[in-house]
Amino acid sequence: MLRVASSRLRSKLISVCTTLFGISIFVFVVLRVIPGDAITSSFGQDTSNLTPQTIKALKSYYGIDKPLLLQYFNWLKGFLTGNLGFAFHTGTPVTTLTASSFPVTLELALFASIIGVTLGTLMGIYSASQPGGRRDFFGQIFGLFALAVPSFVLSTLIVAVSANKFRYFPNGFEYAKPWQNLSLNLQQMMYPSIVLGIAVAAPVMRTARSSFIETQEKDFVRTAIGKGVDERRVRFVHVLRNSLNPIVTMTGIQFGYLLGGAVIVEQIFSLPGMGRQILDGIMKREYATVQSSVMIVAISFVFINLLTDLIYRKVDPRIRQNED
Amino acid sequence: MKIKRESKAWYYYYFRSLNGIVGFAILALLFIGALVALFHATPFDPVAQDINVMLKPPSIHHIFGTDQFGRDIFSRVLDGVRRSLAVSLLSVAIASIVGSTLGVVGGYFGTFLDTMVTRMSDVFFAFPAILMALAIVSSLGHSWLDTAIAIGIVYTPIFVRVSRGPVLSLKETDYVKSGRVLGFSTPRIMAKHLLPNVMPIVLVQIALSLSWAILTESGLSFLGLGTQAPDASLGLMVSEAQSLAAFAWWTLAGPSLALIFAVVSLNLVGDGLRDSLDPTRRSI
User: Fold this and answer.
1) Helix B129-140 and helix A2-33: axis angle, to 10°?
2) This prediction's pTM
3) Residue numbers in B near A297 (CB within 8 A)
4) Exposed (0-12), middle (13-18) or buried (19+): which is A254, by Cβ within 10 Å?
5) Is A153 exposed, middle or buried (0-12, 13-18, 19+ CB in 10 A)?
6) What is the pLDDT of residues A129-172, one digit of tens each?
7) Cis link prior to B166 (omega < 30° from 0)?
8) Nearest to A218 by CA among A318, A315, A141, A144
9) For residues B167 and B107, what is the distance between their CA atoms, to the nearest angstrom?
C-alpha cells in the first residue's frame, strides 16, 4: 500500500513540477510583453530626456539589458536558491517583501475559510433538510446572492456604513501585525474575512447541499432513522461525515484562490498581502516582484491541492480502499 | 398505427422551470437596457455633466438619482451594462470557441497535442484567474477589446476541460466506432457525433462563464484597469461610490444592483439549461 501511495505521490510531484515550470515561463512572457519597463515607470514622461548612456546604465542596473533567455534563467537560478530578486521602488529584496506579506494573506485566507466553510456547510445542511421545500428555497437564494454580490460591492458597502456612518474603520490605521497589536490586527482582519468568507460560503454551500442530498438517500441513513436515532444526530454525524469529501475538495480550491485572488479585497481594506504586492508590482513594472510573487502563489496553490488530496484520503477510507 | 412522439424540445423543459423563466426574464431586461444604450436612446447622455443636479436622490426625472457630477445614474448604468455584456459576450465567445475546439480535438486524437493542451490548462488553473487577467490586461491595454481578450484567455482552459472529458468517453462508444468503420471522415464524426453531445455541457458553461466574466470585468475596472473615466462602467461606478455611498446611497445602489441582477440571471439561466438539456435531470 505504501508503495502505491509513494509512486502516486512521485508521479503527482513530477506533474506539479512541470506545471510550475510552465507557469514561470508564462508569467515571464506575459510580463515582457507589457509595454514600458521599470525605467519608463519610474521616470514617466522624463524618460525621453534621458541620454542613451543613462538608459543603458539604468538597463544594466535593473538587469534588463541581457537577452531574454538569460534574464529568465538568471531569475530562475535566483528563485531556486532563495533569491527572489529586488524591488527597486521600495529598495528591498522581494524575499523581505514576501516575508511580510505572505503571513498577512495566509491569516486572511484562514479566517475567511473558517467563516466560509462554517456558514456554507450549515446553510447546506439547512437547505438539504427539506429538498425542494421552503428551507431549500431560502438556502438556495442565500447561495445565489453570496455568489452574485461581488466582493468589491460588499466591501464598499461596509466601508460606507462602518467608516462614514459609525466612524469605525480599523483598516484606516496602519496594518498591525498580530504580535504587535493583536486586538487591532483582528479588527483589521474582521471585515475582509467576512467579505471573503461569504464569497467562499456560496460554492461550499452548493457543494454541501448536493452532497447531503445524495447521502441522505442512502440505505444506512434510512436504517439509522428507522432504528430511532435522533434526527439531529443522523444529520450532523451520519450524513455530514459521509458527505465531507466534496466539501473538503471545494474548501481546498477556495483556500488556494484566497492566497492570491484576494487582490481587490486586500486593496480596499489596505491589507499589505500578496495580492496587493502583485498588483503594485504590475503597476510599477517590477518584473522580479510580480514573477516571484506569482510563483509563490502558484506553489502554495499547488501545495494546498496536494494537501487536500491527502486530507481527502484521511477523511474517506473508501478512497484508500479503492486504490490498493 | 402511428406512435406519437413523446419527447419535446429542450426549451419546452427550460421554460417549465422557475429558475429558467426568472433568469431569462431578467437577462432579457438587461439586454433591452444594453440595446437602449447601444442606440444612444438613454434618457440622458451617460457622460453629460449637469452642475444643477449634483448628487440628487432618485426622482421621477432621474430614477436612479445623479452622481457627484450631476450625471444621470440610470443612463450610466445602462451604458455600463452594455459595456459589461459586450466584454463578457466577446470574451466567452473567444474562450468557448477556442477552448472547446482544443478540448474536442485534443480529446479525440489524444496524442502529443492532447498532452500539450492539458498541460497548458493545468498552468492556467494553478493560480487565480483574477491575477492572470490583471497581468494580461496590463500588458494589452485598457480598452474594452483588450479586457475581453484577457478574460477570454483566462477562461479558455475551463472550456478545454469541460469539453475534453466527455469526448474521451464518447470516442469509445459504439456509434462513434461504427462511424469510423463506415468510413466517415474525422471532421464529420466530430461535427455530427461528438459536438452534439458536448454542446449541452458547453452551453451551461457559457452561461456560468458569462457571469464570471461580468464579475471579472467589473473587478478590473474597479481597480482602474478596465474602462477608464469618464466612460461608464459598473465596476468604476462602484469604485467612485466608495466615498459617496455614506450620504448618497443611490450612487452605490444602481450599479451594484445591475451587477447582482446580471450575475443572478446568468446563474439561473445556467441552472435552467443544465436541468433542461440533460434528460436524466428533467422533472415531469
Assistant:
1) 20
2) 0.86
3) 127-128, 131
4) buried
5) buried
6) 888 888 988 988 898 888 889 999 999 998 888 887 788 888 87
7) no
8) A318
9) 6
Q: What is the ipTM of this complex?
A: 0.85
Q: Answer whether A145 sits within 8 Å of B267, measured CB to CB.
A: no
CA atoms of B10 and B282, how far apart (whole Å): 10
The span from the first CA to the last CA of chain B, in angstroms, equals 26
CB contact under 8 A, A22 and B222: no
Q: Among B127, B223, B246, whose Cβ lies nearest the Cβ of A301?
A: B127
Domain boundaries, chain B: 30-38+72-281
Which pLDDT score, from 0 to 100, does residue B284 have? 45
| The three grid cell numbers given for residue A33, joined into one nine-digit string | 510583453
Q: How far apart are CA A147 and CA B266, in angstroms?
A: 11
Q: Compute the residue count for chain B.
A: 284
Q: Is B123 on the interface with A (CB under 8 A)?
A: yes
Percent of chain B scoring above 70 in pLDDT: 95
**A192 — pLDDT class (breaks 50, 70, 90):** very high
Grouping H, G, I as helix, E, B as strand and the rest as coil, residue B230 is: coil
> Is-contact A262 A195, C-beta < 8 A?
no
Collect all residues of chain A within an 8 Å Cβ-Cβ radius of residue B119: 18-19, 22
Kindly state the percentage of chain A with pLDDT values over 90.
Answer: 16
* CATH architecture designation of domain B30-38+72-281: Orthogonal Bundle (1.10)
Q: Which three cell numbers stand for residue B130?
A: 483574477
Q: Per the CB < 8 Å rule, is B131 touching A278?
A: yes
Nearest Cα neighbor of A79 from A95, A58, A55 is A95
